[in-house]
Automatic annotation (TrEMBL):
Belongs to the KHG/KDPG aldolase family. Keywords: Carbohydrate metabolism, Lyase. Homotrimer. Pathway: Carbohydrate acid metabolism; 2-dehydro-3-deoxy-D-gluconate degradation; D-glyceraldehyde 3-phosphate and pyruvate from 2-dehydro-3-deoxy-D-gluconate: step 2/2. One of its GO terms (molecular function) is (R,S)-4-hydroxy-2-oxoglutarate aldolase activity. This is 2-dehydro-3-deoxy-phosphogluconate aldolase. It holds the Pfam family Aldolase. Gene3D superfamilies: Aldolase class I (3.20.20.70). It catalyses: 2-dehydro-3-deoxy-6-phospho-D-gluconate = D-glyceraldehyde 3-phosphate + pyruvate. Its EC number is 4.1.2.14.
């Protein structure tokens, strides 16, 4: 059987996410915080962001980042509806992810040309995603589901398909290496780099230091593979 073609994520976005190695998950409550946090992350070597759609300013914050910090690979998280897909594509997002695997949302992303990674945590989730042509998948919630041990065992029957995963949920600098050392992982994601309280407190230097720490870890692991 031939590998299932990737339809849900464009090759250039796959490369950008893989090159980044980490996606900073952000919850932004004020538009004025958007550009400073993006610049702080970039200064520390983190070039990919997942901006969650959990606040009313998320769309405006994303537009501000796209306009002022075009070097950032910008994605949306918690994308649950066809309308959100449409809005993300219209805004020019590089990608979007979801906590679950909704075929209607995946189909809408493909229709609008939006690179998309659905969330999976069971073999059934994986097979639903495969049916939609997805091979880059969000593993969520990663840590409470069993971490890399669970993922490795779950994916074993599908190894010939060369699936890649973005683990989120409980991933942090202390356990990042467990994921990054695995060939299954294209990038990790997490909110610890720029926690909501750090953004609210405008602690840009701390965010840059957190970004530098994980960027250095990624480089060390990749240099020693």
């Amino acid at each position: 059987m031939q590998p299932i073609a990737q339809k849900a994520m464009a090759p250039d976005i796959i490369k950008k996410v893989n090159d980044a190695g980490v996606i900073a998950v952000l919850v932004i409550e004020e538009v004025k915080q958007a550009v400073p946090v993006a610049k702080a992350l970039l200064a520390g070597g983190v070039s990919a962001i997942e901006l969650t759609l959990r606040t009313p300013v998320a769309w405006d914050a994303a537009k501000a980042i796209k306009d002022a910090v075009p070097e950032i690979t910008l994605g949306f998280g918690t994308v649950l509806t066809v309308e959100q897909v449409r809005n993300a594509a219209k805004l020019g997002a590089d990608f979007a992810v979801a906590p679950g695997c909704n075929p209607r949302v995946i189909a809408a992303a493909q229709e609008h040309g939006l690179s998309f990674a659905p969330g999976v945590v069971t073999p059934s989730d994986i097979e639903m995603a495969l049916e939609q042509g997805c091979r880059i998948l969000k593993y969520f919630p990663a840590e409470t589901s069993g971490g890399m041990k669970h993922l490795s065992n779950m994916v074993a029957p599908y190894n010939y398909l060369n699936l890649k995963f973005i683990p989120l949920g409980g991933v942090n600098v202390n356990n990042a290496a467990d994921y990054l050392k695995s060939p299954l992982i294209t990038a990790i994601g997490g909110s610890w780099i720029a926690k909501q309280d750090l953004i609210q407190g405008e602690q840009w230097d701390t965010i840059t230091r957190n970004a530098e720490e994980i960027s250095q870890l990624i480089k060390h692991i990749r240099d020693n593979k």
